[in-house]
Amino acid sequence: MATVALKELTKRYAGSDLLAVDAVNLDVKHGEFMVLLGPSGCGKSTTLRMIAGLESIGSGDLLIDGKRVNTVPAKDRDIAMVFQSYALYPHMSVFDNLSFGLRRRDIARSEIDRRVTNVAATLGLSELLKRKPHALSGGQRQRVALGRAIVRDPKVFLFDEPLSNLDAALRVGMRGELIKLHHKLGATMIYVTHDQVEAMTMGDRICIMNGGKVVQLGSPLDVYRDPADMFVASFLGSPPTNLIPGRFDGSGSTLAVGQAKLPVAKKGEAEEVIFGIRPEDIRIDGSAPHTYGEVLAVEPLGAETIVRFRLPDVAHDVLVRGPRSVTAKVGERVPLAFDVASAHLFDPLTTRRIA
Amino acid sequence: MISRAFLFVIVALYTAFAAGPFLWVATMSLRTTSEISLDHYAWPEKLHWDKFPQAWFNSNYSVYFQNSTLVVISAVIVLTVVGAMAAHCFARYRFRINRLLYFVIFSAIIFPPQITIIALFQILVDYGLYNSLLGLTLVYIAVQLPLTVYILESFFARIPADLFDAARIDGYAEWDIFWKVSLPIAMPAIATTVILNTILLWNEFLYAVVLITDEAKRTLPLGIQRFMGDQLEDVGMIATGLMIAIIPVVIIYIFFSEKLIQGMTAGAVK
């Protein structure tokens, strides 16, 4: 177990004007499951590779257990990493793949055998120890890759989108196993993904990155409920938060969104704001509707129904997550009520949240 | 069905085309020169197996064979190790003059030996390596290195970078990664270059004839040439010598052909 601290960590690739990682600060606690989440190219993998020692650090400091390790080579950092491609050595058996890291470390043969056997049993690989990677299924390869990390008993586990190459059903299963594994080992884990479901379900905390910067850091539900800016609001959640331009009236207590007049108090100077509301915070409700919407599409998902609306005088479509009992038909005009208390206001210029 | 038959005919024709000369040399190697001059294509009436020990002991073939073996094996070992290391570096490491170095090494391929051989001759004389097996070995290494690096580099470059990263995280330094990860994975390509270099150098004539004059230092192709006199050609003995030279190549092919095909068709290292 160990702590990992990133202080103003920065990386610029040769020949590029852009910073791949831009002054990232992050404190990962003992035994914490930290998820780095963001779209591709946001710098999350580069950050992970800098922690691993696979990528040189441009500037800033990296501390593992309080010790600066900027120039310590990967092989001496005592970390383990699981790759998206699994990166199993194709010429070695499963046993050799698992023990490759141990054989480097002056560990007695009997101890290596014991540890590999234990890990293989935990992961259900006991029968496969003699096989080569090409004779394994995707899920089995994933387990070997995981086993290779566990067997080393490292200070820190790093995961680089480890579930991306698995099919959907296997992914859900492995997600659960990783959560169990984290509880069992209690190890510090840093997990990179672009999949918000993985981030929400697995992370103790989520660090959302965009354009090389940390945009927001917090527990999954905090980040979901209180997005720091429009990027986080639209990136987290599926379907994403509806972001609709709105305008305060003269009194500053009513916000006009399309034709809806919402009881929202003005904060700050901005007259024009972006009104952000999650699809589940809009109800199809005739009792006290704020506005009416024309149904463009209905997507019944079984447990729930996603309905796409066009609101009068609103340029963007609005998505609503309704119960499975929704019976709206395409073309119909339906009353909609906003749960204003759960909505957020964003500054259209800075994209930051105002309220 | 028709396409299979067609394929069979094509393969049979090609086999006859390729194996015919070989068979002819094989039959001639068991006939005397006078028998051959009577009828060039006849089947041996009496099998003159004694021609082989005669060539081996009396005509110095044992020496030629040893010289060839020594030169080719040393050259191929150095070529394989140095070539693989160079290819690994070119494929793996980003450094400033990577492509420039690669281009310089590879551009040597475009010069035909006739252009470089006089300069080479002079260099070997200057360094006291002329007319020595060591000199010939060094020249063979230099001549075959670009192609070796070229073949291996393209293979090494296809090994996913994640494997090297995984090995680094598993605690291995670059040197160990080369020996324990790169090299074993590249075995099919290594086998290809080993066979290619062995056969090319085993049959090499031009450099050998220019750079070796001493009878005791001749390699097999030069030894065979010795039987081609100005007035008389001992065709029967030449055929026997050819067979002695061919047999190791055939044996190598039999043992390595599977690896060779793997190397030529290998793509996925997933």
What does this structure look like?
The complex is a heterodimer of chains A (355) and B (270). Chain A has 355 residues and is of the alpha+beta class. Helix content of chain A is 24%, strand content 31%. Chain A is built from eight helices and 20 strands. In chain A, the strands form four sheets. A six-stranded mixed beta sheet of chain A has the order 6-7-8-3-9-10, sandwiched between helices. Chain A has a five-stranded antiparallel beta sheet with strand order 13-12-11-14-20. In chain A, strand 17 (304-310) and strand 18 (317-323) form a beta hairpin. The longest helix of chain A is centred in the middle third of the chain and has 18 residues, at 168-185. Chain A folds into two domains: 4-231, P-loop containing nucleotide triphosphate hydrolases (Rossmann fold, 3-Layer(aba) Sandwich), CATH 3.40.50; 232-346, OB fold (Dihydrolipoamide Acetyltransferase, E2P), CATH 2.40.50. With 270 residues, chain B is mostly helical. Chain B has two domains: 1-49, no CATH class; 59-265, MetI-like fold (Orthogonal Bundle). Chain B has 13 helices and no strands. Chain B has helices at 2-29, 33-38, 51-58, 61-92, 98-107, 113-126, 133-156, 161-169, 174-185, 187-202, 206-211, 220-226, 235-265. The relative contact order of chain B is 0.14. The chains are: A alpha+beta (355), B mainly alpha (270).
